[in-house]
Predict the structure.
Amino acid sequence: MTDFEEREVPNLNAAPWDALWHPLDAATFTEKPPRRSWLLDGVLPLGKVGMLAAEGGAGKTIALCQLALAVATGAPWLGTFNVAPSAVGRVLLVLGEEDAEEVRRRMWNAAQTMRLSLSTLEEARRRIVALPLAGEPCAFLEAGDHGELGDSAFTKWLRGKLADGGDPWRLIVLDPLSRFAGSDAETDNAAATRFVQSVEALSKATGATSLIAHHTHKGARAQGADASTASARGSSALTDGVRWVATMATEQLSHGDATLDDHLGRIVTLTVTKSNYAKRPGACTLRHDNDHGGALLPCDEVDLDRVKEARDRGTGAAVKQRAEVRERRAAVEEKNADTRAARETRATLEAQRKTVAALHKEAKSAVTKLEKLAREEPDEVERSKLERELADKRSGRDDLEAKLRGILEQQERLGEGE
């Protein structure tokens, strides 16, 4: 028996990792590795876990319904990304926030926007399974007796359903993450990693791409905010763990025309912000099909020119608005500075007034005493000395009185200027 055959002997007590423990394959350095399989040609790999992040209401659920139709039929996704011919196949849509009726609306609108024939749609109908889970428990993980996280009953049930022996699954959509990952996944890196591992296990078992819909955080929703993997809400372990991330950012534009505003007033930019296995494609500018539930369509060249014009106008208006804001802020700051200076001046004058008033009071009292002494002094020489001293005191009193009047006048003028 060869070493290889010995290694292949089944061992009922083997750990799940034992089968993975062996030297590199003999062909590792002598033959080219297998070509990578793609779900979306050169963009999204097959059999990996990815994420689509957007703010609520941006259109990520309808976009994923359109992706389901694209994978089931081979039609381009969003009129832009080609489904690999070998990746056409079955799709599972796990929609945690939708009921069955809403799923029908979304699939109808997606199909109308994509303009697929009835025969093509019948093929898609057989290939797509949609789970409307609004109000149903569907967490992927649950805590064991000792607090450890393990697969939930729902995850085990789902894994069993996916192993039905039919045609290969090509895409699994989980929308949104918050319904499946549990409350800790957005705040706890360990819980986030464990959730991603659970989704990876689905992809590994089926060979399908698993795409998780998630929300962006508030800062990423500001108009003009840069798209990045950091746009996704919660723990960084979520975007670190998946192999592909795209974001959808909405933008409000004003075209100065009601028809154009209805057609292009709300733009969505889809950007691949993480791609571990391929070069990231350029951003895709999309518009909503308002006749069909806000499904997404690519902007054509005319649309893109109008979007650019509106953005340029908006940029000019924004520059003017920022300049006006700066001017108003400078005026307020100047006024505040004047107010602070006036307040400080008033405080200084009041302190001076109190000091001079006290000295003036003392001087008046001293003059009164000396006047009395001078009147009552019988000796002419001594009286003469007292009168000279009295003259000095009167002069000092008068100076203080004049200074006090000046301070009071300044306070009065400052009060009038308010």
